[in-house]
Amino acid sequence: MNYASKSLDNSAEGKPAERILFFIKSKGPSPTARLAQMLEMTPEAARQQVQKLVAAGLIEGRQQDAAGVGRPRQDWVLTEAGNRRFPDTHAQMTVQLIGSIRQLFGEEGLDKLVAQRENEARLLYRQACNGATVQERLAQLAAVRTDEGYMARVEADAQGWLLIEDHCPICVAARTCQGFCRSELQLFAEVAGLDATVTREQHVLAGAARCVYRITPLQKLA
């Protein structure tokens, strides 16, 4: 597999097609009109770029049920080829190594590998996520996860916070060994601390476009 050597450019100077790919990756399925509005393009220019990306096999249409009377809305989503335009940390080699470990040492050996990775991540997160409040620690966690390639951000709502990861750089490896995902959920709970609970609301491995974690404080937000 060949992967992009750097993240796609979403700046004003970036190529229109790259900006569209980045927007869909970070904001989710989007219709042509929204792409034109958010990226400050004319509707016709947006349609032309969308058709180029469709022809290249990087995006595809997904019908959404109409909210009222009228035709269903079509949103654009990344295809598997489109997702491969974003780094995924040498996925093919990782999968091969996981397969070799499973063959040589069995599931017990693979569990030890996951535990070792979890311990290393725990040390890193404890050092980096030392804020006084849950919100501060989540912001620090999102920064660390972004450095690791997860394109993470935190959004607040009436119930607490959402930790949203728009990209999974170990997705292929996680499909081979789902212990990595269980380990991450445990680490996020430790970062949140005893003042909040953490649950996964969306999961790439379950077919979602991104992973989303709900952090709920045990006491109501002021």
Automatic annotation (TrEMBL):
This is MarR family transcriptional regulator. It comes from Massilia aquatica.
